[in-house]
Write a structure and sequence with these properties.
This protein has about 140 residues and is mainly alpha-helical. The chain is built from 5 helices and no strands.
């Protein structure tokens, strides 16, 4: 196949960097939704199903999203953070299917795309401007 811009192939190493930065920012956005903007609505929607521990669960999920977002933006332990992000995105997708539109989460395609980006980062690595630790 003929490539119309062959000179741009040298910049392919920066593609995971862009994916990493955008997915990290999206996890910060999710933490903002869960911890500030929609916390009361999520608590009210999940209260009948959880037995009263919804507030602690929301804080735990928000803290996990902040940790994953920070790690992805900084490029530190990217593959572990991408795996945690993949698990979070799949969990949100399952919760969206189970509880329906009563939970004010974002749409299912958002979580599918976020899971695919996290899986890609987990498989291919962090890209440029990242910390690689040798064991």
């Amino acid at each position: 196949m003929l490539n119309p811009f062959p000179d741009l192939l040298v910049l392919g190493f920066f593609a995971p960097t862009l994916l990493r930065a955008v997915s990290g920012i999206l996890f910060f956005y999710l933490a903002n939704i869960h911890l500030k903007r929609e916390r009361a609505a999520i608590t009210n929607a999940l209260a009948p199903h959880s037995g009263g521990r919804v507030s602690q669960l929301i804080v735990l999920i928000g803290a996990l999203e902040i940790i994953v977002g920070t790690s992805l933006v900084a490029g530190f332990y990217t593959q572990l953070a991408a795996l945690a992000g993949l698990l979070l995105a799949v969990a949100f997708l399952v919760m969206r299917k189970k509880y329906g539109p009563a939970i004010p989460f974002l749409g299912s395609p958002f979580y599918v795309l976020l899971a695919v980006v996290c899986a890609s980062l987990h498989l291919y690595g962090a890209g440029a401007i990242a910390f690689y630790l040798q064991m």
